[in-house]
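Entry 14. Structure prediction run on the chain below.
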Amino acid sequence: MVGLSNITPTTNMTIPADPLLIAINAYRDALDGYGKAIEGKDDWIGDSGCDALYEDLICGPFAALANWGTPASSHEVALAAIALADFEKVDSAGSAVSDAMEAAATGFWKTAGEIKPTPDAVVLQALMIPLEGKHANVNLTAKEAADYLRVTEVTLARWRSTKLGPHYIKSGGKVLYRVSDLLDYVAKNERKGTRPDK
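Output returned:
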């Protein structure tokens, strides 16, 4: 099982000093690892191998965050916590992690004694990669594309396996998304409203 105590940093990885950031990064890395492990393995869906892999990779980091009971230590850490809470709500309609991360962020802002901008607005600005103005042929990683679309990498992998979502390319074993394809996908899925014009 992957836990906070057995994360080995790579040479180009910087470890944040804050325990909550370490826990958040461990959880995001676990989700990323799981998404990569099941990518292209449609026959795993509902299989006990898939369930065992999920338990090995994600359960430890999930439990660490779900049981988090202290406020974030800084405004930046509070933003990271609220970003993860928002991510959880979009991907799985909320969880114990989203509740605990909202509490950690709110706890910091309450104890800081100052009013901060609405967290959702701040997080939206931080998460959204501004694609307008970038060359249409620039390729983004799956993580960057997921951040832009505000979905998880696991969701993107599921879309790829079911032929949904934006067009993608594979280069050197990596999945990449062109800026133009992401913008087209968003434009095609934009809704003007649910009521017919009168």
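The helical segments are 19-38, 48-66, 75-92, 96-112, 119-127, 142-149, 153-161, 179-188.
Filed with the rest of this week's runs.
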